[in-house]
Amino acid sequence: MPAAPNTLARSHREILHYLNGAHALTQERVRSLEADIAITPRGTYRSALERRLGETRSATARLERRMAELGASSSLLETGIGALGGVLGGVLTFWLAPFVLLRSFGGDEQLLHRAGDHCAAEAREIAACDTLEHLARGLGDEPTAQLAAELRSGAERMLARLRDEIPKLTDGIVRAELLSRQEG
User: Fold this and answer.
1) For the chain, where are the E strands, in sequence order?
2) What is the greatest pairwise CA distance in the chain?
3) Residue 105 gets which letter from DSSP?
4) For 132-172, what is each residue's pLDDT tens digit?
5) How many angstroms separate the CA atoms of 88 and 1, rounded?
6) What is the pLDDT of residues 30-65, one digit of tens each?
7) Hey, what's the torsion of the CAs at 104, 105, 106, 107, to 10 degrees?
8) Which of 26, 28, 97, 160 would be 60's cystine partner, CB 3.0–4.6 Å?
9) Contacts with 156 (C-beta within 8 Å, 6 or more apart), sequence order
10) Cβ neighbours of residue 124 under 8 Å, at least 6 residues apart?
11) Distance CA 30, CA 56 (A)
12) pLDDT digit string (tens) for 98-108?
C-alpha cells in the first residue's frame, strides 16, 4: 500500500535533512582538498588528492540532483548561497595555505598532519553515508540509499589510499631526522 502523502512528505523532509548534511560535508571536503593540493608537491599523494577532489565535486553535484528530485528547490538556493560563502572561504584558504605550511610544522610534518585530517574527514563521510543509506532504505527511498552506498564506497577507497600514503609521508620525516643527526 502506498504511503500517505503526509507521511511521504515527512519522509522526504527527513531524507532531505540528511542529504543536506552530506552535501555540506562534500562542500567542505572540496575546499579542504583544494587548499591541500595547493601546498602538496607532485607525487602519488597529490595525485590521490586530485582524484578525490574530482570525485567529491561529482558527489556534490549528485547530492544536489537528488535533493532537487525530492523537491528541495528552495533549500538548494540556500545551499548555493552557503556555497558562495564557502568558495570565498576556499579562496582565502588557498592564498593562506603556504603560510600555514610554514607555521609550526615543517613541510613533511604538515603533509602528514593533513593526511591524518583527511582520514578523519573520510571517516566522517563514511558515517554520514551509512546513516543516509540506512535511513533511506528504512523509509523506502532506494535511489537515495544507492547514492549513499556509492558515495561511501568512494570515501572508503580514499581512506584506504590515505592509509597507504601515511607511511610514505612519515618516511620523509624519518629521512629528515636522520640527516639532521648526521649533520649535528
Assistant:
1) none
2) 78
3) S
4) 999 999 999 999 999 999 999 999 999 999 999 999 999 98
5) 48
6) 999 999 999 999 999 999 999 999 999 999 999 999
7) -120
8) 26
9) 122, 126
10) 25
11) 6
12) 544 444 445 88
For residue 177, what is its C-alpha cell?
Answer: 631526522
C-alpha dihedral (151, 23, 49, 127), degrees to nearest 10: -50
- Residue the block writes with cell 598532519: 113
Q: Cα dihedral sign for 54, 60, 63, 64?
A: negative
Distance CA 46, CA 83 (A): 24
C-alpha cell read off for 93: 584558504
- Residue 71's region, left for phi above 0, alpha for psi from -120 to 50, else beta, is left
CA distance 23 to 19: 6
Q: Which three cell numbers stand for residue 53?
A: 577532489
**Contact call for residues 157 and 55 (beta carbons, < 8 A):** no
